[in-house]
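Running this now, will post back.
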Amino acid sequence: MSGGQWWFCLKHTRVEPDKGCPDKHRMGPYATEGEAAAALQTAAARNASWREDDKEWNGD
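Update: finished.
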């Protein structure tokens, strides 16, 4: 199997085990296939959270 690591390939927009596209095209590693499948949603949520945090720090 994948040794517990999964990746989301940005080039092919799919989940991959350790053996897959070069890392420059991937997000991860993730512990589960499901976490890798949600990589784009997770990144979007984190970005939104960071933007809000930045607003608080800058007094906006």
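The helical segments are 33-37, 39-58. More later if anyone needs it.
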